[in-house]
Amino acid sequence: MRIALIGGKGGVGSSLVEAWRAEHELTALDRSEAPQPGVRDVVGEADDPESLTAALEGAEAVVHLAAHLPHGSEAEQLPGTAAAIGVNVGSVLLAMRLARRLGVRSFVHISSLDVFAAYGTAPIPAGAEPDATALYGLTKLLAEQALRRAVEGPAPTAEEGPLTVTSLRLAFPTTAEAWPRWITPLREEQAEPVLHTLEDGTPIGSLHPEDLATAVMGALRRERGGPYEAIAVTAAAHSIVDDSATRLLGWRPRHVLEA
After folding, report:
1. Residue 215's domain is classified under what CATH number?
2. Do residues 255 and 208 make contact, with C-beta atoms less than 8 angstroms apart?
3. Which end of the chain, N or C, is less packed with Cβ atoms under 10 Å?
4. Residue 255 lies in a domain
5. Is residue 51 domain-resident?
């Protein structure tokens, strides 16, 4: 499969490259100029139409991973509000629309279970509506809403063709070395991997990169032109009551922290 990774040199993107480059034709759009073996590099910004077009040309599938990750306290995050919306919302919608115009068959948006304000502290019940107000979770939620509206709006033109769009709400994606603990992409803010727990002390195992790659590939292979879906992807079933990954992708994590 010809896959374009937008923001393909971050932690999650690097995990996907490692899992897929032997079997798939990969293109990575990223601001970093560092080369990745076995990958076609496009250096540019995620919100630049020319760079996006260069990366998406000829792709069958797209994974949008680029994200603005807020630093510090809520007050310290304020100056980056517009930048977070630009990358986490604007570039997602732009990439999806370009993908549809270029005849891409599948688009996967990497979202987060941070769309739920209480995720990581209390279990999220079945049917709960996302309610994030913190900047990162809120921008991920806004991107999901924008994608849903775009997909459920007017039918694509004959030139555009059908596009399947999926948001994957990841929970604590980590490295194989750190698993089951989590290591943040903001490495300067974290000296050692951490094991998250709910308020009652129940541990939340992080998402192993092998399970991550399997879930994303399952989303890329959903039926073309299918309905928009937002799917929880977590290795800790007790943290949210949501069977959408199993039901829609046939996915279950292989790396699970034993109770």
Report:
1. 3.40.50.720
2. yes
3. C
4. no
5. yes
How far is residue 148's CA from residue 217's CA, in Å, rounded to a whole number?
A: 20
SS3 of residue 229 by DSSP: strand
Which of 103, 82, 129, 120 is CA-nearest to residue 225?
Answer: 103
Q: One-letter amino acid identity for 196?
A: H
The Cα–Cα gap between 8 and 66 comes to: 8
- Mapped onto helix, strand or coil, the DSSP state of residue 220 is helix
Reported as a single tens digit per residue, the pLDDT across 115-131 is 999 999 999 999 999 99
State the burial class of residue 209 (Cβ atoms within 10 Å of its Cβ: 0-12, 13-18, 19+): buried
CA distance readout (Å), 30 to 40, 64, 193: 11, 11, 25
Establish if 97 belongs to a structural domain.
yes
- pLDDT computed for residue 40 by the predictor: 95
User: Do β-strands 164-170 and 196-197 pair in parallel, antiparallel, or remain unpaired?
Assistant: unpaired
Cβ proximity of 160 and 101 under 8 Å = yes
Q: Strand 229-233 vs strand 196-197: parallel, antiparallel, or unpaired?
A: unpaired
pLDDT digits (tens, 9 = 90+) for 194-216: 999 999 999 999 999 999 999 99
Which range of residues forms the domain containing residue 60?
2-249
Q: Among 22-31, 156-165, 222-231, which is the least confidently predicted range?
A: 156-165
pTM above 0.85, yes or no: yes
Among the residue ranges 19-23, 49-53, 56-60, 78-82, the one predicted with the least confidence is: 78-82
- Count how many residues are written for the chain: 259
For the chain, how many structural domains are there in total?
Answer: 1
